[in-house]
Amino acid sequence: MTDSAIQRRGRRGTELRIVDAAQRLADERGSIDGFTMDELAEACDVSRRTLFNYFPSKVDAVLGPDVVLPDEAMDAFRAGGPSGDLIDDLQALVLAILENEDVDLATIQRFDRIVHANPVLLITLKERMRRLVERLVEVAVQRPGGDLPARDVQVAIAVLGGVCEVAVTAFADDPEQDFAELIVTGIATVRRLFG
Q1: pLDDT in tens, 33-42
Q2: Using CA atoms, how far apart are residues 110 and 67, in angstroms rounded to an integer?
Q3: Which site from 7, 20, 109, 117 is most exposed, i.e. has the minimal number of CB atoms within 10 Å?
Q4: Best CA proximity match to 142, nearest among 97, 80, 92
Q5: Are 159 and 190 in contact (CB under 8 A)?
Q6: Could you read off the pLDDT of 7-57 as tens digits, one per residue?
Q7: Measured between alpha carbons, how far is residue 16 from residues 9, 12, 51, 60 in Å?
Q8: What own/partner pairs with CB < 8 Å and gap ≥ 24 does 41-44 have?
Q9: In whole numbers, what is the pLDDT of the chain averaged over residues?
Q10: Which letter does DSSP use for residue 26 in this model?
């Protein structure tokens, strides 16, 4: 493993520790206003300066970093792949994101409680999703052929978002299911119903 890979892994570990501590504090105290950044730094065993190097606010710490679209997957998507079908290729992006995430029921339930108890988090999440959609639309219209209307891509992403939401609910009902497979079968259902 290269030094830069070790640094990224170390940074990611610290980032996850901060997010977990921020979510735990927000959940225990009923609000993101129930703790200070100093208390958060102490809870995750980092200095205040280190904490602010990772996250500028409690909102950012609780929500964690923006969704990372892996470069390799984005390059393939931009080039018209991996399959050439927009829906399948958006699905591949979602699955690439999930490869780097641990999805467990307790974390999903805690996150859901925190977000619904703190409206500012919903507002921030919506803004983050808007930026993500804009980025995906910008890349999708650059795909070979160049004739894909931005509105079509927005609709496709909205449908995929709905499929992901249904997958989260299904996973919460039965955490023994494979989360990625729930997304794949959800997209297959959309194709069957609207095909």
Answers
A1: 999 999 999 9
A2: 19
A3: 7
A4: 80
A5: yes
A6: 666 778 899 999 999 999 999 999 999 999 999 999 999 999 999 999 999
A7: 10, 6, 12, 12
A8: 44/14, 44/17, 44/18, 44/20
A9: 90
A10: H
Place of tokens 């931009």: 78
Give CA–CA dist 3/91, Å, rounded.
32
For domain 66-195, the CATH architecture is Orthogonal Bundle (1.10)
- CATH code at 1-61: 1.10.10.60
d(CA 75, CA 65): 21
Any alpha helices (H) in the chain, and if so which ranges?
A: 3-29, 37-43, 48-54, 58-63, 71-78, 86-98, 105-117, 119-140, 150-173, 179-194
Residue 167 and residue 180 in contact, taking contact as beta carbons nearer than 8 Å: no
The number of residues in the chain equals 195
Task: Judge contact between 53 and 64, C-beta under 8 A.
Answer: no
Two structure tokens written together for 131: 């930026």
Q: How far is Cα 94 from Cα 183, in angstroms, rounded to an integer?
A: 9
Cα separation of 102 and 124, whole Å?
Answer: 22
Cβ pair 24, 109 in contact under 8 A? no
